[in-house]
Automatic annotation (TrEMBL):
InterPro entries with a match to the protein in the record: CheY-like_superfamily (IPR011006), Cyclic-di-GMP_PDE-like (IPR050706), EAL_dom (IPR001633), EAL_sf (IPR035919), Sig_transdc_resp-reg_receiver (IPR001789)
Transmembrane segments: none
Domain of life from the UniProt record: Bacteria
Any GO BP: phosphorelay signal transduction system
Pfam families with a match to the protein in the record: EAL, Response_reg
Domain (Response regulatory) ranges: 9-128
Name under which the protein is recorded: EAL domain-containing protein
EAL domain sequence ranges: 141-391
Gene Ontology molecular function: cyclic-guanylate-specific phosphodiesterase activity
SUPFAM superfamilies, alphabetized: CheY-like, EAL domain-like
Taxonomic classification: Bacteria, Pseudomonadati, Pseudomonadota, Gammaproteobacteria, Oceanospirillales
Length: 407
């Protein structure tokens, strides 16, 4: 931000006047004018009256805590940014951040007390010059069921692939199939834009479509001498569908037996554990593999490991992304990697954006990595070029211990 005259407005809620005054000075240096509130009911009034670009507030103050205030801001349809001054245990601050995001608020990473100017500047990057946010508009769903039906008929649903790398060999070892909607007007859409709108029948049709496209690409890679493992996501409904076994077997053999991994999202429910286990067991007997995706963010992790023939765990990106900053996240990644070693299964770290964490991941025992810092999802043609080019896992990132790379 430009350190000049104020161009943006922040409303500050803090019960400590000294801390509030210090923060107001820092914001002023960063070009942000401040309106100070000492009581929670004043904050709502200021937000409604002034429509500030930023709300800064502590989590613990007065009779109404900061988490309750997040709900009040969401009820007001506040569209600006929200910065929390934690001053509390990191777990509590993370809960508040996730709640704010779930409520539709534009949450910035929280700031510990005492505040440092450099950290504050980093949080507020791009705030200067933003228009004051008005009330959020309530829009109807952008897509309709008939559009989704046409998308299947016109073959607008395509695949991109997230590359996965082996930490031991430093080479591309596999890909994860990710569906995209090549919408004729809106452009390339990610799953979150349309998957929630699918009917159960469309969801099953999509699984079939993804499998067919992925197997076709895998067969093409295999003919070119590239043998990669292929991962694809399946829902609990997919896993509970007995015909999945026949469908996967057919596609798997047509692709020449390319290594296929079916990923089950850990947070997804499975009403009939026995039937799901039966399908997973039959797939395993066929020679296919089952992976638990987003491991560590659900509530049935160990039960799944006991019930299903798991070959792989994927550590959720929320732990990997904060490896340097949070010792508890680092401890969780290390524990999952140790669990994988003891069970004799692969451990994949998702969401790698900073290559500096690779040494720690290898030290902990993770076997594979993927993330935007290594390679972004790409069409099938890009996978061939990536496989024959220089690996992003070059020796330059080193093999230093976790002590030096994850402080």
């Amino acid at each position: 931000m430009n350190e000049s005259s104020p161009h943006a407005l922040a409303v500050l809620l803090e019960d400590d006047p000294d801390a509030a005054a210090a923060l107001a000075v820092q914001l002023r240096v960063l070009g942000v004018e401040t309106r100070y509130c000492r009581h929670s009911h004043h904050l709502v009034g200021e937000v409604l009256a002034k429509s500030p670009q930023l709300v800064v507030m502590g989590l613990a103050f007065g009779e109404q805590d900061g988490i309750a205030m997040l709900r009040r801001l969401a009820e007001c349809r506040y569209r600006g940014r929200v910065l929390l001054l934690s001053g509390v245990e990191r777990k509590v601050a993370r809960i508040a951040e996730r709640l704010g995001e779930a409520l539709g608020l534009n949450m910035l990473p929280s700031l510990d007390k005492p505040m440092r100017l450099g950290e504050l500047r980093e949080r507020l990057e791009g705030l200067e010059g933003e228009a004051s946010p008005g009330p959020a508009e309530i829009r109807p769903p952008f897509f309709h069921q008939d559009e989704l039906e046409r998308a299947f008929d016109r073959q607008e649903l395509i695949l991109h692939y997230q590359p996965q790398f082996d930490l031991a060999s430093r080479r591309l070892s596999g890909v994860e199939a990710l569906v995209r909607w090549n919408h004729p007007e809106a452009g390339l859409l990610v799953p979150g834009d349309f998957l929630p709108l699918l009917t159960p029948a469309q969801s099953r049709l999509l699984t079939r479509r993804v499998l067919q496209l992925a197997m076709t690409d895998a067969g093409r890679w295999r003919e070119a001498g590239l043998n990669l493992s292929l991962s694809m996501n399946v829902t609990p409904d997919d896993l509970l569908c007995p015909e999945l076994v026949a469908l996967v077997r057919e596609g798997w053999h047509s692709a020449g037996g390319a290594p296929l991994v079916l990923e089950i999202t850990e947070t997804a429910s499975m009403e009939d554990e026995l039937l799901g286990s039966e399908v997973a067991a039959r797939l395993h007997l066929t020679g296919l593999e089952v992976s638990v995706d987003d491991f560590g963010v659900g509530f049935s992790s160990l039960a799944r490991l006991q019930l299903l023939p798991i070959s792989e765990l994927k550590v959720d990106r929320s732990f990997v992304s904060r490896l340097h900053e949070d010792l508890q996240d680092a401890a969780i990644v290390e524990a999952v990697a140790l669990l994988g070693r003891r069970l004799g299964i692969r451990v994949v770290a998702e969401g790698v954006e900073d290559l500096a964490c690779l040494a720690a991941l290898e030290h902990y025992g993770c076997t594979h990595v993927q993330g935007f810092g290594l390679a972004r999802p790409m069409p099938s043609e890009g996978i061939m070029a990536l496989a024959h080019g220089e690996s992003p896992l070059t020796p330059s990132w080193g093999r230093s211990s976790a002590d030096s790379s994850c402080k």
